[in-house]
Amino acid sequence: MSPKEELALVSSSPHPGLIPFLLMLGFLAPPALLTPLQPICDPRVMDKYILEAQQADQDIGRACAVSCALLETVRVPDTKVNFLEWKMMTRAGQASEVWGGLALLVAALSQAQERPPTSPPSLREQLARMRSTLLSVKEILRSVNGEAEARLLEGRPTPALTIRTVERLLSIYLNFLRGKANLYITEACRSYAR
Predict the structure, then answer these.
(1) pTM
(2) Phi-psi region at 52: left, alpha or beta (left = phi > 0; alpha = psi -120 to 50)
(3) DSSP label at residue 159
(4) Measuring CA to CA, which residue among 179, 188, 172, 176 is closest to residue 86?
(5) d(C-alpha 81, C-alpha 83), whole Å
């Protein structure tokens, strides 16, 4: 539409000053902050991810009747949590463990997805969903400033294990979500609310 046609359209409307007024109002209004699709600190978000992981555990258990060996060993985070030690850790130390564990799990899931085409399709779908969930958790961590806190201790080694089966990978994934990730996010949200 040419500028002349636009001008003709505006001047022929019953309220010729309405469109310029609305445009001016739009530019003068303060920009609205974007809100996340889901409330970041709503505990139901992490609960949903944990329930999905438990369901995946059952589904993969059925898909891998005998064993679903990985093509090579993979490093995963050690998910054991000593609650006394965890509470004594600095926020930066906790963030570092969570971010390091997240990175190890994403890498392990990427390796696990490189399975032979003979793998059950349901297994490949579950692995893709698990990776997607971890990327969502990563966004939650970013929103509660976990990434900035983790940078304070960059280079600190993440306690890790090596595994060879998809079943063990899923167990580690579930424990990571229930344990360190959930603890860190819950505490970050509490301090966020203060």
Answers:
(1) 0.73
(2) alpha
(3) P
(4) 179
(5) 6
**pLDDT recorded at residue 78:** 92
- Positions of the chain with pLDDT lower than 70, given as ranges: 1-39, 65-67, 115-119, 146-156, 192-194
Give yes or no for a contact between 169 and 111, defined as CB atoms under 8 angstroms apart.
no
Under DSSP, the state recorded for 116 is -
CA 146 to chain centre: 12
H helical segments located in 18-165: 18-28, 43-63, 83-88, 91-113, 121-143, 146-151
Q: Kindly give, in sequence order, each residue whose CB lies less than 8 Å from that of residue 79, ignoring residues fewer than 6 positions away.
A: 101, 172, 175, 176, 179, 180
Nearest to 193 by CA among 37, 35, 43: 43
What pLDDT score was predicted for residue 35? 45
**What is the end-to-end Cα distance of the chain in Å, rounded?**
53
Residue pair 177/81 in contact by the 8 Å Cβ criterion: no
